[in-house]
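seq/struct pair 1
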Amino acid sequence: MPIDKKYLMLHALMRLLVITGVVYIVFGLLLYFAQSTFIYYPTPVVHIKGLSEKTIKNDGESIKIHVLNESQPHALIYFGGNAEAVAFNAARFGQTFQQHAIYLMNYRGYGGSTGTPEEQALYSDALALFDKVKARHKHVAVIGRSLGSGVATYLASKRDVSKLILVTPFDSIENVAASHYPVYPMSIMLKEKYDSISRVPAIKAPTLILIALDDSIVDASHAHRLAAAFPDGQVTKYVLGGSGHNSISSTSQYYDLMRDFL
């Protein structure tokens, strides 16, 4: 007795739906339980000859800070990207920002800092560092790159930052994740939101936003949305052509724009 073709097609369709469902659930579970590994890529300890290192204590953890030009009256704090060894910025930052004391923070679990990186912990460490720096310097500017832009916007919403620079920033990590994985309910799945756009009303500092035109990691639309949330006149925005998320600092304008803004 011949097998009904409609039955075969229906069976094949059901099998495809089951496989698709299983793949969806398994990958969704992977995203949920391993989400911190998508956000944080801790870097090893980096020692650079002549670069001063300090340690601050916060919440029982030791946070390593690289310091340059500490005697300068004005200060600059830098929060790097999720896989960035911030010590490697020391030489160029020292040349570019000669009028500033420079503090490069290693997140928890990065570059010799103890602990495990997570959103609220990074916020707490940023506040602790700022308060120590502000006690020594009259004005404190802040630069945040990529993941660091989330830390920087939080800090600027809680403290009197003199100027704020955001490099390849996002409106929120939740929105970035949703753009990469639109079939998953990221508002439910993500534990760490880094909701920078919600901080904007509390930020009073003049702000510079640098956007990579060809950013395949944090699409430029997220940075534009963040910039649009600021009041008119508070933000200066530049889109750097020929640059991607990781290569923006290699463009000729990158350091000049930051130096001129500060």
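seq/struct pair 2
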Amino acid sequence: MTRKRSSNPIGIFDSGIGGLTVAHAIKARLPEEEILYFGDTAHLPYGDKSPAAILQFADHISNYLIDQECKMIIVACNTASAIAFEQLQKKWGNDVLMLNVIDPVVKRIASNKDIKKIGVIGTKATIRSNAYEQRLLHHRTDLNVSSLATPLLVSMIEEGFFDNQLSHTIIEAYLNYPDFKDIDAMILGCTHFPLIRKEIDDFFDGKVDIFDSTDMVADAVLDLLTRHQLLNKERRNPDRFLVSDYTHSFEQTSRLFFGAEIRLDQVLLWDELLR
């Protein structure tokens, strides 16, 4: 494995557009860093896939990003973070800097003693893994955690349906879940969900603290790169955005975050795997 250099890119991957919320937050915090983003649009959404499939996808994408000499890998998908992150860490050990999108949120909430009752929404796989509940209770046994799978939200967002009557109706149907009554905080346990954060906040009339991973992961990236002396001091290369299957909606949403100059390339990783 080649020696990590500060000028190398930060590798970020997700099943689709959701991880762009994380990439955008990192770029806002660290504008000199080069981003290499991979959206596995051929297999989205991950939330409906088996753990074995998710492990295979995450392993193959991380291999690719490491081959591209990324100095850090961010698993910008809650489902992959819950199912595959520990296995990726075991595989690469200290050779690769890695972050997931669950732990920064858990640590922030656990440190807030005013929060007692928490709601969590996410994909079927994320909720089924109990990753948030287990990690929150590991830090604080006094917390009351209620989780709900909200599978329609990812497909809705991927198709560009947010901040309209359809999204309002679906969000309201999910958030009326009885166990969410009187919660102090809501965790958006999917990196797609910051795109509907305002709608969720409006549903609760601003009375519930809403947590997503974007800014917290950006803080964690800054901290980790600083500690390992890998902060990029001088921007050299443009950001790159890759997909395993080109979709018009991915390109359009990418441009909402990163401007019209974005270059979207297709990489047929799965064809290579089958050779």
